[in-house]
Amino acid sequence: MVKRIKLRTLLLGGFITLLFVVLLIRVFALQVVNGDDWHDRAVAQWTKKVPIPASRGTITDRNGDILASDVPAYTVIVNPAVIHENGLENEIIEGLHKILGKDESELKELVNAKDKDGEYLTNREVRNEGWKIDETKKAQIEDLNKELKAQLKKEKKVLETGLDMIKEQKRYYPKGTLAAHILGYTNRDGEAVAGLEASLDDYLKGTSGLMKYESDRQGDQLPEANMVYKPAVNGKNLKLTIDDTIQYYIEDAMKETYEKYQPISMTVIAADPKTMEILGMANLPTFNPNTYWNTKDQKDFFNYAVKATYEPGSTFKIVTLAGAVQEKLFNPNAIYQSGQIQVKGTHTYLHDINRSGWGPITFLEGVKRSSNVAFVKLGSEMLGKERLLKYINDFGFGKKTGIELPGEVTTTINLPGPVEVATASYGHGVSVTPIQQLAAISAVANGGKLKTPHIIKEITDPDTGKVVLAPDTSKVVRQVISPEAAKETSSYLEQVVADQVKGTGRNAYIDGYRVAGKTGTAVKYGADGKPDYSKSVVSFIGFAPVNDPKIALIVIVDQPNDPDVGGGTVAAPIFKKIVSQALPYMGVPKATTKKTSDGKTTVDRPAAPTLTKLAVKDAKQKLLNAGIDFETIGKGTSVIRQYPAAGTPMSPGQRIYLLTEETDKMTVPDLKGESLRDALDILTLLKCSVTVEGQGYVSEQLVTDKNGKRSVQLTLKPVKDEEASQDTSSSSTEDDSGSKDTSAGDSADGKSGEEASDN
């Protein structure tokens, strides 16, 4: 018995000893071996970390007007447990549906949400409709809460509704769709998605801060506890080169045309040609960055200004013209036969708008009428492949411009054969971007300097005000043509607009401002690879004032719903509307206004210059330099008489006629197609008496001579025969009104297509 007790005692003691040894080992492991790990876990439990979000940098226009900034936002929270405890399910579902527009079935699911044990949850965010709502909806939620609390108070319940909001911040674009494709947007999580928001995200987003301290079980900071504070670094502020007023002019002018012609897309870009700072850039269709999720078609987010390539048509003729002027190959007074031309070394014929052409005309008239034949001669025959390709490359085509916007594209331009060289001379068979085109026309406007376009004015630190980035707008990529050649090219492009009869760009004429420009219409290709004459891209590009350019602008309309309209009809009026608003806003005075002594503005029409007794060549150059349209009558070498006479105030767009032969030795020229005013001006200069029948343009004339005195009877019709008659060949071109025609190149074997002409 005693032995048994001793054995039990021994076993019990051994067990207790073993247990004690195991306990010691465990304590040693916890405190020594794994001590650091357990200490870190303990510290983590009583240490509280509070993130300090950084504010995203603001984006403003060049004048400091805010285009994008962070603003307070509020997210709606529901507490299903409290809602059910107080019986407010129906009231909250109905109220939130009315305020947020969220589906009632989805709200019911949120309000009735339970955990895996069947208990009602305590906090649920109302996404997406209740996520980061604005101040207006916040006030409505607060009003709903007050009503519910008043209801609970009557029932003597705790004033807890189960409806609450948490304060956050979100990106806000105060001007809505204005400059949307430039700005881009951030998503609801604050992540940059598109535009400058995305491409300059590293500058704009900043770095979040942190506050860390030791706390008790309630989360309150312990007395005398250490606190670590890392301040947030806010994002940099971004100032753009655009002017929101000019941006508004652009978008407003585009909307009217977009509604009328319902094109696939439209693009307009404006720049200061001297600095290549972008003053405005817009595309249609567009989107609202505040509600980007409502945009159904992803194409609405596409920035065509830098991401799209297109066939430019006759706006590309500017390159050919500038190259020919630089090489001293362009003689505005030289005569060529318009109508059609055979590409040397091939069986291919290329045509003007009408295959019969306008007869033998000067190259200057060919520029005004946008004659394809004239530009084939200039580009293919005079410049040749190597020099033409050199000027194409020097003007920046085939390379990205380097603008700060994301997604810029480009295509290489190759001219493998004589037909491609010839058609490229008038903008067919080449592919460019709108921003490349604008950089090229700006080079002509600013004295021949190709510059990098910029949309960033400066980036600054919001805390110090220090500028961290400011592009150098004085930097020149290359001198493409000389200042003299640029000035001469500008004078010819001005005639395209100033000539209110023959100029294809006459619808861009602005009274009081000298405008230079070029229209363009390019037929698109169908799925079978053949031209589809019902679809085209129409455009206008130009700058003003010619004598001191302040703005260059390109307008592109892709596939208007009327197949018979061209760049002169659709795009030129948009240019006119924008520029005629922008120049006065920029403080550029009209040439036809002056200030009186009492500070009032009066009209001061320019007077006709003195041209009599000048050599015809010198008189023409004087008028070109002044941007005045003119026409020579006779074959003499000096000016005998002019109309209107020197010193006579001139009407907007009025032409000066130069008589170079004695009137009794001259026959009355063919006036068919001329306006009544121009016909009367010519006949006055010839000292002929005139009788008129009908209205519109001259359709017939009858000259009689009685007793040595000539009399002319004019018959008028409402429209020009030239504009009324449509040539029916096979490519897209433009007549002098800007309306599209369908004449094309064809080859000896009767095929047509790749060599189609366009204006």
From TrEMBL:
One of its GO terms (cellular component) is plasma membrane. Residues 134-169 form a coiled coil. Residues 748-759 have a biased composition (Basic and acidic residues). Residues 710-759 are annotated as: Disordered. PROSITE patterns: PASTA (PS51178). It is found in: Membrane. InterPro entries: Beta-lactam/transpept (IPR050515), Beta-lactam/transpept-like (IPR012338), PASTA_dom (IPR005543), PBP_dimer (IPR005311), PBP_dimer_sf (IPR036138), PCN-bd_Tpept (IPR001460). Residues 602-662 form the PASTA domain. Pfam families: PASTA (PF03793), PBP_dimer (PF03717), Transpeptidase (PF00905). This is Stage V sporulation protein D.
